[in-house]
């Protein structure tokens, strides 16, 4: 089935400057590109969010020795990709009993120990939920207008999906966020900690040269910016899924803000063809997305994924204002918390539209693609 076309845009975020490669600061200043004076800082766009640096805590799995769990069992969990107590607590009995060397009896003991250490209450008050949300980080899209639409940038602990036709700016948005993600906003303030970013490239479209250009726009050290992006080029859906199993070992070592997958569906589409394989494809895609949601919550990071659109080929298309829909069906629709559609606007501009969100009103933002990445539109 043919993919349909659209283009979108983004705008410009705050300028991020670096006095030295170790001490990045986010400041509001004019972009070094053709962007206009409309540029607003991310800080301005999220001024409604309060307080200091994140209280978000990651508890390493080794801490369970304090609850009487043998180190050998903890090593077995680590080998199977479970690096934190939070990750352990998210596993089902069935998943844990599939770990080599972990018996049914041990599963119960492990889950009980994890629960005790994290002291999670099955039910908490809405006030407590609100408190927990203060820990969310937000990443600038590069465009102040698009950041405003998203009420301060792309939020952590969720999957944010952008979809649209070819050349609408999906990969440009990924590149821009791979840079801005290194300096996210925490509780409305620029984080004073350097963050790293994971970039899973399924279509061979990642370009370090673009990262250098975007880093220059924000007056960032190009080498440091490149070093903070960990790239994995994957060639089939099995490698794409396997990449997530390696991730915990990487995520636990440094501070990460973002996992980008450009694109989430392309390899699944290529590897599963025809109606007969659709159920299998959707099941695998569902497992993949479920793993991503867990990582987003476990490490307080943004999962940012791109997706293509499909032209509706049946008669229904004639009665639709926009006869293109995102690939991935209900599985992807339910996994993505925030869905943005991108389309081409006038000239070089692109239009982003909130397609689905639990808290954002429907609305649109116009942006453009510049040498310095996603930025506000000139007009
Ligand atoms: N250095 C640059 N300066 C300005 N515009 C650029 C630059 N590099 C790429 N672009 C523009 O970005 C657009 C391509 O956007 P992008 O690669 O993000 O598309 P996409 O939505 O990922 O498409 P696909 O579905 O094919 O992956 C093109 O219109 C191109 O002109
Ligand atoms: Mg692309």
Q: What distinguishing features does this structure have?
A:
379 residues; alpha/beta; Rossmann fold; DNA polymerase, domain 1; 2 domains; nine-stranded mixed β-sheet; four-stranded antiparallel β-sheet; 14 helices; 17 strands; 34% helix; disordered N terminus; binds adenosine-5'-triphosphate; binds magnesium ion; meiosis
CATH architecture of the largest domain: 3-Layer(aba) Sandwich
Report the CATH topology name of the largest domain.
Rossmann fold
User: Could you tell me how far the N terminus lies from the C terminus, measured between alpha carbons in angstroms?
Assistant: 36 Å
Could you tell me the radius of gyration in angstroms? 21 Å
| Count of domains | 2
Which CATH class of the largest domain is shown?
Answer: Alpha Beta
Shape, per Cα inertia axes: globular
Q: On the 0-100 scale, what is the average pLDDT?
A: 84
H/I helix tally: 14
GO cellular component, one term: condensed nuclear chromosome
Family: Belongs to the RecA family. DMC1 subfamily.
Organism: Hexamita inflata
Protein name: Rad51 protein
Task: Give structural notes.
It comes from Hexamita inflata. This is Rad51 protein. It holds the Pfam family Rad51. Helix content is 34%, strand content 21%. It has 379 residues and is of the alpha/beta class. It folds into two domains: 15-55 and 135-376, P-loop containing nucleotide triphosphate hydrolases (Rossmann fold), CATH 3.40.50; 61-118, 5' to 3' exonuclease, C-terminal subdomain (DNA polymerase, domain 1). The radius of gyration is 21 Å and the shape is globular. Bound molecules: adenosine-5'-triphosphate (ATP) and magnesium ion.
